[in-house]
Amino acid sequence: MKKKAEQFRKAQYKDIDHILELYNELSPKPLRDRKVLVRAIHFPCTEVYVLIIDGEIIGTGTISHRIVPDSGFVGFIDSVVVSGEHRGKGLGIFITEKLLEIARARQYIRVELTSNPARIAANALYKKMGFTKRATNALVYHLEE
Fold first, then answer.
1. Would 21 be classed as within a structural domain?
2. Sign of the CA dihedral 25, 123, 38, 51?
3. Which pLDDT value is given to residue 127?
4. Per-residue model confidence as pLDDT tens digits over 102-129
5. Most CB atoms within 10 A, among 13, 87, 95, 111?
6. Distance CA 81, CA 79 (A)
7. What is the CATH number of the domain that holds 115?
8. Statement: the pTM of the whole predicted model exceeds 0.70
9. Are 56 and 69 spatial neighbours (Cβ–Cβ below 8 Å)?
10. How many other CB atoms are there within 10 angstroms of residue 62's CB atom?
């Protein structure tokens, strides 16, 4: 059996359409605004990554950070998506582990993520990897409607 060529790298402008396709597999919302993704790719506190197998982008994940003044850098993992035809092969774990390696190398004090409760498989995966529920309220204030 032929070994698949695998690459995990920072997203580039040329990857945007593929990443948007992956996001649309995850959620039935209308097509995301490509301008926001372009800004994310170039934003200094955010890094969007892609997983490429045999020349095809089949997954993506994002890590960003902020500084908590009394303790240090906190990382955030967002938008981990694997193409439907490649799910169930451990690639979501692979992407998340790569993002955690980045956080460790940068000495973040913790890494947080949120996941829709309806994404049962993804939530089970995160718990299996060692993520735990925080004993806090997660509140949101929407500035745009």
1. yes
2. negative
3. 93
4. 999 999 999 999 888 888 988 998 999 9
5. 95
6. 6
7. 3.40.630.30
8. yes
9. no
10. 22
Residue 24 has pLDDT above 80, yes or no: yes
Cite the beta strand spans of the chain per DSSP E. Answer: 6-10, 46-53, 56-68, 72-82, 110-113
Could you tell me the two tokens for 35? 């301008």
Query: Is residue 104 situated within a structural domain?
Result: yes
Angle between the N-to-C axes of helices 34-42 and 16-26, in degrees from 0 to 180, rounded to the nearest 10? 120
The pair phi, psi for residue 46, each rounded to 5°, is -130, 135
Token look-up 């209308």 returns 30
In 3D space, the residue among 65, 124, 71 whose CA is nearest the CA of residue 99 turns out to be 65
Q: Which long-range contacts (CB under 8 A, 24 or more apart) does 26-30 make?
A: 26/79, 26/81
What is the tally of structural domains in the chain?
A: 1
- Within 8 A by CB and 6+ apart from 39, the residues are none
Domain span including residue 47:
6-129
Q: How big, in percent rounded to 5, are the helix, strand and coil portions of the chain?
A: 35, 30, 35
Tell me the three state secondary structure of residue 73: strand
Residue 3 has pLDDT above 70, yes or no: no
